[in-house]
Write a structure and sequence with these properties.
By secondary structure, this protein is α+β, with helices and mostly antiparallel strands. The protein has one domain. The chain is 18% helix and 40% strand. The protein has 7 helices and 12 strands. Strands 3, 6, 7, 8, 10, 11 and 12 form a 7-stranded mixed β-sheet that branches. Strands 4-5-9 form a 3-stranded antiparallel β-sheet, with no helix packed on it. A hairpin with a 7-residue loop joins strand 10 and strand 11. It is globular. The protein starts with a strand and ends with a strand. 36% of the residues are buried. The N terminus is likely disordered.
Length: 295
C-alpha cells in the first residue's frame, strides 16, 4: 500500500470528529485503506508523474505483445497490486479553489459537500474515455472519475475576431490532466450507472438542512472550522486494472466569449476507486465516502 497511512491522530482530533467515525467506518468497504482519524501521506502530482513517465507507450519493433504488456505491468506494479492513495486536484471547474463544491453551515457546525465534488458533469476524463473508445460516445454516466492533476500553460497569443469585426486577444493554452476513473461493470447494458460518492451518514440525496444534491457531510466545530475549513483537501484510494491507461489529445477552439485556444493532453488511469476522504491541514482523515451506484 503506497502513500497511505502514517498513524492514528491524537485523542483530541479523534474526539472532535467522533460523531462521524462510526458512520464513515460503515461506509468504507473492506478495501478502503483508511478510516476517520488516520493520518495519511498521499501521493503528490510529482509522485504520479514519476510512475506514469516510466510506462512504455509503444511496443518495440522486435518485442512481442506479451513482452510489451509485461513491461507496462511492471511499471505500474505498485498501482496494480494494492490500493494507493493520491491527492485530488480539487474542483476542476474552479481551479482557484473557492470551495464551489462545499459550504460550511455555522448553525449546524457542519461541512457539506455537494455531488459535484466528484462528478461526471465536467472534466477531461470522459472525453478521453470516449475518444479512445473505452466507453461509448453517449455513455456519460458509465464511469466516475477524479482529476488528480490539472495544469495549464499559456504558450502564446494571437489576434482573433468575428464576422462583425470585433477583435480579441486569444490565448493559446496547453492543458495537461491526469485522472483516475472506474467504469461501471454493466456499461452498455443500460445501468446501473455511477453517479458519485456518498457517506454512510448521508444515505439519501437530501436531509435535514441540506440542499438536495449534498452527499457528503461531517461535523466541524466553529472554533476548529475557522482554522481548518480553507485547508481541507480531498484524496482518493484506487488501484489499476486492464486496460490500465488511456491517452488522448483533443482541441477546443476559441469563441468570442471564451477566447482560449486549448490543446488538452489527458492521461486516464483505469481501475477500481475504493473510497475518497476529506483531510484537514495535517492530512488527518475527517470523513470517508464510498462509491455509490444509482439505477
Amino acid at each position: 500500500m503506497i502513500g497511505v497511512l502514517w498513524g492514528r491522530s491524537s485523542l483530541v482530533v479523534a474526539s472532535v470528529f467522533a460523531t462521524v467515525a462510526s458512520a464513515a467506518a460503515e461506509t468504507a468497504n473492506n478495501s478502503c485503506p483508511f478510516e476517520v482519524g488516520d493520518l495519511l501521506s498521499p501521493l503528490t502530482g510529482s509522485d504520479l508523474d514519476a510512475v506514469l513517465s516510466s510506462v512504455p507507450l509503444e511496443k518495440g519493433d522486435f518485442e512481442t505483445t506479451q513482452e510489451f504488456e509485461s513491461r507496462r505491468q511492471s511499471a505500474l506494479k505498485d498501482f496494480i497490486d494494492a490500493p494507493v492513495v493520491a491527492f485530488t486536484h480539487g474542483d476542476p471547474k474552479y481551479p482557484d479553489q473557492d470551495f464551489t463544491t462545499a459550504r460550511y453551515d455555522a448553525d449546524l457546525e457542519r461541512v457539506l459537500y455537494n455531488r459535484y465534488f466528484i462528478s461526471n458533469g465536467y472534466g477531461d476524463a470522459g472525453t478521453a474515455l470516449q475518444n479512445t473508445e473505452v466507453i461509448g460516445q453517449y455513455d456519460f454516466y458509465e464511469y466516475i472519475s477524479f482529476d488528480l492533476i490539472l495544469e495549464e500553460e499559456v504558450v502564446g497569443t494571437y489576434a482573433g475576431g468575428n464576422a462583425l469585426g470585433a477583435s480579441v486577444e486569444v490565448k493559446e493554452i496547453v492543458r495537461r490532466t491526469i485522472s483516475v476513473a472506474q467504469l461501471t461493470p454493466s456499461r452498455g447494458s443500460g445501468g446501473p450507472y455511477f453517479q458519485g460518492l456518498i457517506s454512510a451518514d448521508m444515505p439519501h440525496w437530501s436531509g435535514d438542512g441540506l440542499e438536495p444534491d449534498e452527499v457528503l457531510a461531517f461535523d466541524l466545530p466553529l472554533d476548529v472550522a475557522k482554522d481548518e475549513y480553507h485547508s481541507l483537501k480531498t484524496v482518493v484510494a484506487f488501484s489499476l486494472e486492464e486496460p490500465y491507461l488511456a491517452y488522448n489529445e483533443h482541441y477546443i477552439g476559441p469563441i468570442i466569449t471564451t477566447p482560449l485556444d486549448r490543446t488538452i493532453l489527458s492521461t486516464v488511469m483505469i481501475g477500481n476507486i475504493y473510497c475518497a476522504a476529506v483531510l484537514d491541514s495535517k492530512n488527518t482523515v475527517l470523513d470517508v465516502a464510498a462509491v455509490a451506484n444509482y439505477d
